[in-house]
Design goal:
Layout (H helix, E strand, L loop, with lengths): L15 H17 L21 E3 L4 E3 L16 H17 L21 H19 L15 H21 L13 H11 L7 H10 L5 H9 L3 H7 L19
Antiparallel strand pairs: 1-2
C-alpha cells in the first residue's frame, strides 16, 4: 500500500481561496493522469482520517476508514447495544447499498445487469415506493419537503442497515437479555445510539440547500424516519397510537 503524495500542492497560511483552487487542480490532474491506465482496485476513495464510509458498486466493496472507528460511532469500552446501534448500523447501511435502488442493478463483479427475478424486483419496487412516499411527507423547513425519490437509496440503506444491525445485536446476546444500564434497556440503548450518531445542527439556509443537493435525509429524519418502521422500537419505548411518530403496523416498511 502507498500513501498519495500531496507534497506538490502549494499551501499558504493567508489565501484560503487559492489553497482550495490548488487542491482542486491537484485532484483534477490526478484524475486526468489515470486516463488509459489500468484501474487500481486496491485504492480507497477516502483517506484513513475521514470520518465516513462508503459502498463502491463497481468494486462491490465497503470501506471504513480509521476515522469513523471512534465515538460516537464506535467505542471499544461501550456495551454491545451502543456499538451495534452506532457503527453496526452504519456497516449495515453500506452493505444495504448493494441492494438499494441503484446498487441492486450491479452484480457481484460490479457489472450492471439485472440479476433479480421479476417477482423480487416487483416486490422491492412496491416497498421502495411506499418508503419514498413516507419520506416525502417530512417538512424540515416550513414549505420545504424531503424529496423521497432523491433520497431513496440512502433511506433504504438506513432502514436496511438498522435492521441488519438489530438482528446482529440480538444474535450477539446469545439468547440472553441485555442488562439495564442507567435505567435503559438494551433495546433502548441500541435505538438511542442510532440517534446519537446523527446529531447535527443546521442553519436554515444550509438545510434548504441540502434538500436539493444531498441524497441523505436531514439527520432528524434519518433517525425518526427509520425507527417508526421498527416494531422493536415501539416495544422498547412503549410508543402509543396517539404519538407523533406512530405508524400503523400495516404501513411500516422493512425492505430487508
Amino acid at each position: 500500500d502507498e500513501w498519495k503524495d500531496f507534497s506538490s500542492i502549494a499551501i499558504s497560511r493567508d489565501n484560503l481561496f487559492r489553497n482550495a483552487q490548488n487542491i482542486r487542480l491537484f485532484n483534477y490532474e490526478d484524475e486526468i493522469g489515470r486516463l488509459g491506465q489500468p484501474t487500481d482496485r486496491e485504492e480507497w476513495g477516502m483517506t484513513p482520517q475521514t470520518v465516513n464510509a462508503y459502498y463502491n458498486p463497481s468494486f462491490n466493496e465497503i470501506v471504513f476508514p480509521a476515522g469513523i472507528l471512534q465515538p460516537p460511532f464506535f467505542d471499544p469500552a461501550a456495551d454491545l447495544a451502543v456499538n451495534y446501534g452506532g457503527i453496526g448500523a452504519v456497516i449495515g447501511h453500506e452493505m444495504g447499498h448493494g441492494f438499494d435502488d441503484q446498487g441492486s442493478k450491479s452484480d457481484w463483479r460490479g457489472i450492471q445487469r439485472n440479476w433479480w427475478t421479476d417477482a423480487d424486483r416487483a416486490n422491492f419496487e412496491s416497498q421502495a415506493d411506499a418508503l419514498a412516499e413516507q419520506y416525502s411527507q417530512f417538512e424540515p423547513v416550513p414549505g420545504y419537503f424531503i424529496d423521497g425519490r432523491f433520497t431513496l437509496g440512502e433511506n433504504i440503506g438506513d432502514v436496511g442497515g438498522l435492521s441488519l444491525a438489530y438482528r446482529a445485536y440480538r444474535m450477539a446476546l446469545n439468547g440472553e437479555e441485555a442488562p439495564v444500564i442507567e435505567g435503559l434497556t438494551g433495546d433502548q440503548r441500541f435505538f438511542l445510539a442510532w440517534a446519537q450518531v446523527w446529531q447535527r445542527k443546521y442553519r436554515e439556509d444550509a438545510l434548504i440547500q441540502r434538500l436539493t443537493t444531498d441524497p441523505h435525509s436531514p439527520s432528524e429524519f434519518r433517525v425518526n424516519g427509520v425507527v417508526r418502521n421498527f416494531n422493536e422500537w415501539y416495544e422498547a419505548f412503549n410508543v402509543q397510537a396517539d404519538e407523533a411518530l406512530y405508524l400503523p403496523p400495516e404501513q411500516r416498511i422493512r425492505i430487508w
